[in-house]
Specification:
This protein is α/β, with parallel strands linked by helices. It has one helix at 2-31; strands at 33-34, 39-41, 46-48, 52-55, 60-62, 66-68, 74-77, 82-83, 88-90, 92-94, 107-109, 112-114, 119-120, 125-126, 131-132, 137-138, 143-144, 152-155, 160-164. The strands form four sheets. A seven-stranded mixed sheet has the order 2-5-8-13-16-18-19, with no helix packed on it. The longest helix is centred in the N-terminal third of the chain and has 30 residues, at 2-31.
Length: 169
């Protein structure tokens, strides 16, 4: 009997959690410009900020990922783009060349544009002002602090281009 109650409670909790996530993602669709076939591929995906977020068709973002669009900034994710789990995309970060004990902090800001057909691996961070070209691959655990040319395969912290992606058409 105890196991049956646990199973029922687990299923109920799971259903409530899925409904809650669906409610959150539907609110994102109202606030930002998100294609109807963009997929939120998991739970606890966070979109925030007063800027603009464009998420185009046939793309997805994995669970525990975050996209931040600061005021007057924008983040654009192209078509057919795969963003893995626990990825962070920021259009604004605190500037590192300052005294942090001051009351007023300065920030680095810039639009982030991720092209079409891009694959971003797990645990990556994309910093403000970065453009990732079409068909680029960003390896897991990378910190993207500069523009990435199209068809590049990149890894590392800081990011390094390791080769040009050749296609077998």
């Amino acid at each position: 009997m105890k196991n049956l109650i646990k199973k029922i409670l687990f299923k109920l909790f799971d259903k409530l959690n899925k409904n809650h996530q669906s409610y959150i993602y539907n609110n994102y669709r109202k606030k930002y410009k998100i294609s109807s076939n963009f997929r939120f591929n998991g739970e606890k995906i966070i979109l925030y900020g007063e800027g603009e977020i464009y998420l185009k068709s046939n793309s997805y973002i994995g669970h525990f990922s975050t996209i931040e669009a600061a005021q007057k900034m924008k983040v654009v994710i192209g078509e057919n783009t795969s963003i893995s789990h626990n990825v962070r995309i920021y259009s604004s970060t605190k500037a590192s060349n300052q005294k942090f004990d001051k009351e007023k902090k300065s920030f680095n800001k810039g639009n982030v544009v991720i092209g079409n057909g891009v694959w971003i691996g797990v645990n990556c961070i994309i910093l403000p002002g970065v453009i990732v070209g079409d068909n680029a691959i960003i390896g897991a655990n990378s910190v993207v602090n500069k523009n990435i040319p199209e068809n590049s395969i990149c890894i590392g912290n800081p990011i390094k281009i390791i080769k040009n992606n050749r296609f077998n058409d």
